[in-house]
Amino acid sequence: MVELLAPAGDLEKLKIALLYGADAVFIGGVDFSLRARASNFEIKDIKEACDFAHQRGKKVYITTNIIPHNEDLIGVLEYLKDLESVKVDAIISASPYIIDQALEHTNLEVHLSTQQSAYNTESVNYWFHKGVKRVVLARELAKDQIKSLTAKTKADVEVFIHGGMCMSFSGRCSLSDNMTDRDANRGGCAHSCRWNYELVENDKKVSDEMFSMSSKDLEALEQIPFLIDANVSSLKIEGRMKSLHYIATVVSTYRQLIDTYEKEKSIVDFAPYYVDLMKAENRLTSHGYLEGLPGVDEQLFNHRSEKPSQLFIGLGIDYDHTNKIATIEQRNHFKIGSHIEVFNPSGKKFEFILEEMYDDLDQPLDTARHPKQILKIKVDQEIEPYAMIRRAV
Ligand code: SF4
């Protein structure tokens, strides 16, 4: 069975990812991890994450994937020992030194980070023979190249299927470092490629239009059957800084697609999966390198195209079956008369028109205005804990 691997920036997102169908999550510790601005986990949080995942037969991987300078290496072994003691399932690393320390002095399973740019079978086998169990392939590979690679290695192979791409080769970008003194390879990427730039030649503006250098995000719904048949071990969603709603929606969509393909050996219609995926606040997407070298349509040269979703309006907390009252936490404005869709972690979905709503003192409300306000709403069907409540479209 192929693994669906999801990102988690904090414990709440980790729980959402696992409850909505991820087999494993990857998280960053406070040390030695990229995504320095993601809410990284202290050891006690990592322990709680592992306990939550293991109780459900799922796994937690910790990113220790910086490209370290000398001053970054202080305390590596102690940190690895701490990770081993709280029973993490693997570390994801790029530094040969961190990998050696883990393999020589701990029993941690080691996965090679995409930051090491593994593009070919020889590189994958090199790391496998050193003791690395899994290799996260470079994102700049076509699906046929991935298939020929998996056929010639005993290493587990992990492939990115959804999320942000770099316009530079992964792990080889110094744009942010040069422009902001924030090193992308030590967790500080300022996304300088996504800024708006003027095009100037000999001090003269060439165009009135601003441009950016960003790639569209990766999306691989239609490539999933191919990747499963190519014996890819793990399908990875990227985005530790994304919202709860994004994680629930993207994870659940790929979960359903994978389950359907594994059961029926074909996908008759991808359209419903696209509809579900687009309910998350995606940037514009493309298939990245999976169908070959990206062309001009896979880049975002003249607009950023962030599409923030206003669909997500609340998070399920509890449901009183006797009185048919759900307790929820508000996340976006809605009101009496709103057409609402409930998307439960169990996969059950339903819609209703909101007719009754109360605050936490049982006072009737017309409008839910305040972020994170605890509300009670009348609804005939169960809203499960961690349910996504969103405006129906
Ligand atoms: S600046 Fe852009 S291309 Fe460079 S590492 Fe950051 S996201 Fe990737």
From TrEMBL:
The species this protein was found in: Mariniplasma anaerobium
Similarity comment: Belongs to the peptidase U32 family.
A Pfam family of this chain: Peptidase_U32_C
Stretches assigned to the Peptidase family U32 C-terminal domain: 309-390
A molecular-function term among this protein's GO annotations: peptidase activity
Keyword Transit peptide: no
Gene3D superfamilies: Translation factors
Source species, domain of life: Bacteria
A Gene Ontology BP annotation from the UniProt entry: proteolysis
Protein name listed in UniProt: U32 family peptidase
Tagged with keyword Cell division: no
Record key words, sorted: Hydrolase, Protease
InterPro entries: Peptidase_U32 (IPR001539), Peptidase_U32_C (IPR032525), RNA/ubiquinone_mod_enzymes (IPR051454)
